[in-house]
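sorry for the late reply, my laptop died twice this morning and i had to redo everyting from scratch. anyway the thing you sent over, i finally got around to it. pasting the sequence first so we're on the same page, its 549 residues, then the predicted structure underneath. double check i copied it right bc i was rushing
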Amino acid sequence: MNAEAAYLFRHALLRDAAYQLQLPAERSRLHRLAFEIVEQLHGGPAPLPEGPVPLEDTRLPAHPTDPVAEDLVQHLRAIKERGRGRRRLLVLQQTYLRRAALVADRANRAMAAALLWDELAALSSGAERGRCLLRAASSLVDAGRAAEAEPRLLTAIAESRKAGDLRLEGVALGSLAGVYSDTGRLAPAAAAYSQSLEIARQTGNEGDIGKAWHNIGTLHIAAGRLAEAEQALQDARVIQRRLKDTAAECDCIANLGIVFRNVGRMHEAEAAYLEALALNRQSGNRRGEGVCLGNLADVYFESGRVQLALDTYRQALAICAETGNLRAEGILLGNLASIEQEFAGSETARQSCLRALAIHREVGNRRSEGITLGNLAALLFEQRQFAECRTLYEQALAIHREVGNRRSEGSCIGALGLIEMETGNGELALQRFQQALDLLTVHGHRRAVGVTLGHMATAHRRIGHGETALTLLERALAIHREVGNQSEAGFTLCELALCRLPGGNRDAAETLWREGQALLSPFGATLAKERLADEMRQACAKAGVPPFE
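ok and here's the structure:
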C-alpha cells in the first residue's frame, strides 16, 4: 500500500464514510468475522460464566481474551442475528460483558466498568439484573458518583425482593447505606445498615456479617461515636481474620486507625495505617494504598514531620488520580491545603481548597464539603477577614449539623469563638468555647478538646484571668502531649510563657517560650506565630524586661 492510500484509509472521516457505505448485513458479517479472528488470535473462546454474577469483587481465572474483551463486546454489539443465532449472540455478549466489566474493575477503570455492568444488566432479568446493577453502583461509588449509584441500588433491592434473593437484598442494602452515609444522610444509613446486618444473620453468611459490622463501625465514626466505632470494627476484624479475608481486614485496620487518631492514640493510629498500607501493597490494591498514604500523611503532619507529610500527600494524590478515586482526591486536597497555607502561601492553599470543594460537590460528599468550607474560613481568619470568615464558618456549621458530624461541629463552634475573641468580644468567645468543649468532650475527641482548652485559656489571659488561663493551659498541654499534637503543644508552651511573665520570673518564662518555639519550628512561618511573637514583645515591654529574642 502506498503512502497516499495509507493516508486515505487512516483518515478518521474517510474511514467512517467507508464504513457507513457498507450495507447493514455486510457490516454485521464483517463484525462477526472480526470477532472470530480476534477471539482465535487470543486463545479461542472464553469459558461460559459459571453461576450468577458475584456480589463482591472476585478474580476469575485469567483468559487470553481478557485484554481484548471490550473490543470483542464492541464487535458483538454490531452483529445482527435471527432465530437461534440470536440466543448464541446473547450468550456471547453476556460472557464477554461480564469479563470486560471485571477486568475494568480490577484495573480501577471505574466508569468503564459501570457502563459495562449497566449494559449487562440490560441483557439480564430478575435477580441477575439486580446483581449487575449492584456491581454498576459499586463501580460508580468508586468513581465518586454516589448520586448515580443510588437509583441502581434501589432497583437492585426491588429485583432481589421480587426474586426472593435474600443475600442480594442484604448486600445491596449495605451498599445503599454507604451511599446515604457518604452523602450525609446518617439516619437512613443507620436503618439500612441495621437491615443489612439482620439479613446477613438470617442467611448465615459470616463474610456479610463481618462486612455489616465494619460498615456500622464506619457510620459510628461519621457520627462521632468513637467507642462504639472501635467495638464494631474489632468485632468485624475477628470475623475477617477467621475467614482469612485479608482485603476486608485491611480496610477494617485502616478505619481503626481513624478511630485511634480521633481519640488521640496517635502511635496506634500510625501503626494501624502502616499495617494496612503493607497489606494493600502486598495484595496490589493501589486504591487502598492511596487512601492509607493520605491517612499517614495526616499523622506525619500532626506530629511535626512536615516534609514527610508533604511527600506522602503527593504520593497519595498521584495514586488517587491513577485509580480514579475522585472522592479521596478531594479529601486529600483539602487536607494538603493546611500545609500549603504555611509553606506555599495562602493563594496556593485557597486554590487547593476550591478544587477540593468542587470535587466534594460533584461527588455529593456533604461531610467533606462542610470540612473544606471550614478550611477556607481558616485561611480568611489568618488574613483577618473576619466578616467573610464568619459567613463561611456558619455555612460549614449548618452542614456539620445536617450530616451529624459532631467533631467538626464542635471545632467550628470553637472557631466562631476565635472570631469573637479577635474582635474584642471576650465573654461571647468564652461562651462559644464552652459550647464547643461540651460537645467535643461528650464524643471523646481528645485532640479537639485540647485545642479548645488552649483557646479558652488565651481568651481568659486577654481579659485578665491569669490563674484560670494557667490552669486551662496546663490541661491543654497534657492533652497535646498525650495525643502527639506537636504544633498545639508549641503554641500552648508559648502561651504559658506569656502567663508566667507577669509573675516576675523572666527566665522561667523564656525557657517555656523557647521550648514552644522549638516545637513550632518544623511548621514554617505562619501569621499566628507572628502575632504570638508580637504579643510576647508587648508583654515583655509591659513587664519591663527584654524580649525573648
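The chain is about 80% helix and 0% strand.
thats about all i looked at so far, will dig more tmrw
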